[in-house]
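INTERNAL AUDIT FORM
Audit reference: QA-55
Scope: verify that the stored structure record matches its stored sequence.
Auditor: D.O.
Record contents follow.
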Amino acid sequence: MNLLTDPLPRRSLLAMLPALLTACSGVDLLNATVATDTYRRTEGLAYGPDARQRLDVYQPAAALRKAPMVVFFYGGSWSSGARGDYRFVGEALASCGIVAVLADYRLSPAFRYPAFVEDSAGAVRWAFDHAEQFGVDARRILVMGHSAGAYNAAMLALDARWLAAVGLSPARLAGWIGLAGPYDFLPIGDPQTQVAFNWPATLPDSQPLAYASAASPPALLLAPRRDTVVNPER
């Protein structure tokens, strides 16, 4: 299975996008209707010492060998969000035979860039270290994120510093998936994002697009034409 080209996982990703763009109440409603017989969930696994450095693993109900894995990072302007809010993402992926890792990360204003990128790298390190335990082929691990989480995923896939800090490289990733993410957003106008990136003293190395090259891992980028939070051009 190639998550970036095969029809079934691509349909699941397209189906998730409208849900991810709904209000919180819509996400709550979606979680309430998620099937419980399509996955097995292991909750609250630590990938670091901080209380926010926790993740959940969703496995397909049927045991698999050499399964693909997606490490998912949610959005929330780097200032809000919780992995439990995105159970529908874990279920959608697990129902397609994909092991899903949903990770929390440290948030602004208590923590600023690059803390949330460092945490995302730590979650990916954990995923590689535990791939065999969850029946995953380590050659088939991707990162995926929505909105702010898509930024986190992009930084890991495009800027080698972050995975290098945990003993990995972007070349180890099978690819990355960005859902309505910001990849080149200076100057910063959103107040929450200004805090998260210490605007106007934002480090110029913080923009994922600057690191994109022909050598970057394969990517699938999805965005709505009309996004009131993230300009699709950015």
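Auditor finding: record pair retrieved intact. Residues 19 and 26 are 7 Å apart (CA to CA).
Action required: none
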